[in-house]
Amino acid sequence: MGTTQLETVPEPKYWHLKTVLSEALDSEFAVGEILPNERDLAARFGVARATLRQALEQLELEGRLQRRRGVGTTVAPPRVGVAVDPARHTWPGAPGDAWQPVDAVTSETVPASVARLLETASGETVHIVRRNRVTHGQPVAAELLYVPASAVPGCSEIAAVSATARARAVLHALHAQELEGQDRTVELGSARAEDAKALDRLPGAPVLVVTTRYVAAGRTTAVAVSTYRADTCRLTFGESEAVSLLAG
Length: 248
Prior knowledge:
The chain has helices at about 15-30, 40-45, 50-60, 110-120, 165-175, 195-200; strands at about 65-70, 70-75, 80-85, 100-105, 125-135, 140-150, 180-190, 205-215, 220-230, 235, 245. A hairpin with a 2-residue loop joins strand 8 (about 205-215) and strand 9. It is elongated. By secondary structure, the protein is an alpha+beta fold. It contains 6 helices and 11 strands. The strands form 3 sheets. The protein has a 6-stranded antiparallel beta sheet. The protein has a 3-stranded mixed beta sheet with strand order 3-10-11, with no helix packed on it. It folds into 2 domains: about 5-75, Arc Repressor Mutant, subunit A, CATH 1.10.10; about 80-245, Chorismate lyase-like (Chorismate lyase).
């Protein structure tokens, strides 16, 4: 078999630099230590700053580095295992759920991808519950739970109560229904401004997006879009910690 065109392409400079930087992180820096600025690093390794940024971005994606507001780039600790579905066939907010409700609003506009899953008509009112997840005192995920108002008719008059109470009311209404099934998809994405703020990340930082569809009475009753920090989380599925998904 002849040599393919891909095999003849030399290794990109940033990729080689990433390997060199990774070895330096292991031997010269401690967890939480701040790296020198880009100018000094580029000078040390004799590369252009654009090449250095590419290498640093790749190391961030792989969970070796963290960019922190007002601090700079630091060496990241090992990823924390975060169970995505510790209790199958349960609604959000059930006992043992690690998420904390923050607030709930109603809207007639939802992302197109969510509208397709919910099969909602244009202009249909949807409850949007915002929840956060914290592990070891650090924010690891933010979630938007979309529930059509038609699926929880008893929540039509909750505007007057507090934000957290509105969120709990929607979750409670879901629990009154029999959950028939759920499915999930996972993809790599970039943090939106709102998610970045909740996760103490910079906008555009790599994140893992888990979309969960809940089915009751033969239809999609709720859709949760959960955004996890890709630099600190190792997502685990099922009851075994051995089955995991690592970003990068």
